[in-house]
Amino acid sequence: MMHLRARRGSPAPPFDAGASSMPVREAHGGLALVTKSASTGRRVIIFDGECNLCNAWVDFVLRHDRAGSFQFAARQSVSARRLLRQMGAQPDDPSSITLIHDGRVYIRSDAVWRIFRELPFPWFALSALRLVPGPLRDLGYNVVARSRYRLFGARESCRVLDAKDYSRFLS
């Protein structure tokens, strides 16, 4: 895999329509793959479907995303695993929430502040988390992620969808 070294804030290299994927640098050093079929502009939140905290986060976003900007997929689902593999991301890592937007993969705290940025007042104000250095944000994120099952528990059955939310989940 080719690694791209770029300074923070530098523009991504131009997309080569003939290539199947292209590496681009994320906010604080991660690597994402932009693929032609994934650069549709949709926002997909991939979450751990067995985690109560993660499911509560999805409920929160569903409740406050009045514009219907986000779609969802449990990391354990076939569609989430396929999408993550297509994007060059790790489908077997349940420790992170993942946001796929404009053909880029965002994980951990980068995903969280970008989700907040799309929600209405007062929630978008929490996107100011981006001002905290990424490694420090991710340290806090990882502390919660490691203890989420112990603190919040795990689901033993699949999420039951309301008819109004059904279209927001990838099958």
How is this structure best described in words?
- By secondary structure, the chain is an alpha+beta fold.
- The protein has one domain (21-153).
- It is 30% helix and 16% strand.
- The protein is built from 4 helices and 6 strands.
- It has helices spanning 52-64, 78-86, 108-118, 134-152, and strands spanning 21-25, 31-35, 43-47, 70-74, 98-101, 104-107.
- The strands form 2 sheets. It has a 4-stranded mixed beta sheet, covered by helices on one side. The protein has a two-stranded antiparallel sheet with strand order 1-2.
- It is globular.
- The two termini are 30 Å apart.
Q: How do the SSEs run, as a string of H and E? A: EEEHEHEEHH
> What's the arrangement of strands in the largest beta sheet?
4-3-5-6
Quickly count the domains: 1
Helix amount: 25-40%
Number of helices: 4
Radius of gyration: 16 Å
- Please tally the β strands and state the result: 6
- The general outline is globular
Secondary structure class reads alpha+beta
Estimated share of beta-strand residues? 15-25%
Flag low-confidence runs: 1-39
Average pLDDT for all residues: 78
| Cα-to-Cα separation, first versus last residue | 30 Å
Largest sheet: 4 strands, mixed
